[in-house]
Design goal:
The complex is a heterodimer of chains A (167) and B (149).
Chain A (H helix, E strand, L loop, with lengths): L2 H32 L11 H10 L6 H10 L2 E5 L3 H6 L1 E2 L3 E2 L5 H13 L3 E5 L7 H11 L5 E4 L2 H7 L4 E2 L4
Parallel strand pairs in A: 1-3, 1-4, 4-5
Antiparallel strand pairs in A: 2-6
Helix pairs in contact in A: 2-6
Chain B lengths: L9 H26 L1 H10 L5 H24 L3 H25 L7 E4 L6 H20 L9
The chains are: A alpha/beta (167), B mainly alpha (149).
Chain lengths: 167, 149
């Protein structure tokens, strides 16, 4: 096929594709405005969606968390910043700030295959970090994540094992 | 109506088969997404490539575009335009898939609405194959007139 022949097909194709684009856009907007389960053209809110999806992640109580800790089939994930982690964390916990979830996902998937589940926690009843880390891990294919709300305060006040430093 | 050139010439005949196959794929994909626009908007959001204001617009527009491409391919009206758009769409899908596979996100493909499986290298290979088929149609398709008098 010569270059000239290909060009002869390509230029009409561009013109036709613009017509298809315009027709599709017109029909899409009109159809959406008349249908019963329509969605607003520019109304998508990622913040609302994240909040809704985070609310679906199951949470866990102190006694449940402690039982799992004793069974040795759970990994605690401290979602706070590294400085808070070094000052004190649940014994055996690892530190994964929400932004670092993508870096750690591959090694955690190996643990999933070995039968481990995960509990994320941070400090304070309103702290969003544990939910954000849990959500980031679930997005990366780690399904067995639960949230221990206000985990650090509750755990340390109960007198359960804690560690200091980087490990 | 009489047949002519049917199916003696392999390339136009193969282009016809490709065109009809692509039309079926686009029609099915488009209808699945049109039925649940909210779910498709979430699937687009999960790719984390677009700003919020563009997500619903694309969720409304893309399924409609897919159905119109399918109708265009079947009816042989603006077939070259449809094939060109199809090639561009599959190239875009392949790019989006590659970015998120490299990122390590384990999200729904959204290729055929909410019921699609999670993204994988297989889906990337499939999109690139469909891209090649689209280019083949763009270059070699001769339309219905080639086969019918």
């Amino acid at each position: 096929m010569t270059q000239n022949n290909f060009s002869q097909k390509l230029y009409p194709a561009f013109r036709e594709s613009i017509i298809i684009l315009a027709v599709a856009l017109f029909i899409a907007v009109v159809f959406n405005s008349f249908r019963s389960n329509n969605i607003p053209l520019f109304g998508f809110s990622s913040a609302a969606l994240i909040k809704e999806q985070q609310a679906k992640i199951p949470s866990i109580t102190l006694s449940e968390a402690h039982d799992l800790y004793l069974n040795n089939k759970v990994i605690f994930i401290d979602a706070r910043d590294p400085f808070s982690f070094e000052e004190g964390h649940i014994a055996g916990a690892i530190n994964i700030y929400p932004d670092e979830a993508s870096l750690q996902a591959a090694s955690l998937k190996i643990k999933v295959d070995q039968g481990f589940s995960f509990i994320t926690y941070c400090d304070g009843p309103q702290c969003p970090l544990s939910k954000e880390t849990a959500y980031a891990l679930i997005l990366r294919g780690i399904p067995t994540v639960k949230i221990f709300v206000n985990g650090w305060s509750i755990w340390s006040k109960a007198g359960y094992p804690i560690s200091k430093g980087k490990k | 109506m009489k047949f002519k050139n049917f199916p003696r010439h392999f390339i136009p005949f193969f282009a016809l088969i490709c065109r009809l196959t692509l039309a079926i794929i686009f029609f099915y994909a488009g209808i699945e997404k049109i039925v649940h626009p909210g779910d498709f908007a979430v699937a687009i959001y999960n790719y984390q490539l677009l700003p919020d204001f563009a997500i619903n617009l694309l969720a409304i527009f893309l399924p409609c575009l897919e159905v119109i491409i399918a109708l265009s391919l079947v009816s042989d009206i603006y077939t070259r335009g449809a094939a060109l758009f199809s090639a561009l769409l599959f190239l875009t899908f392949a790019t989006a898939l590659t970015i998120n596979l490299v990122r390590g996100l384990d999200i729904s493909c959204g290729c055929f609405g909410a019921s699609s499986g999670n993204i994988s290298w297989f889906y990337l290979a499939r999109d690139l194959s469909l891209f090649c088929i689209s280019v083949f149609i763009l270059i070699y398709d001769c339309g219905w007139r080639y086969f019918f008098v």
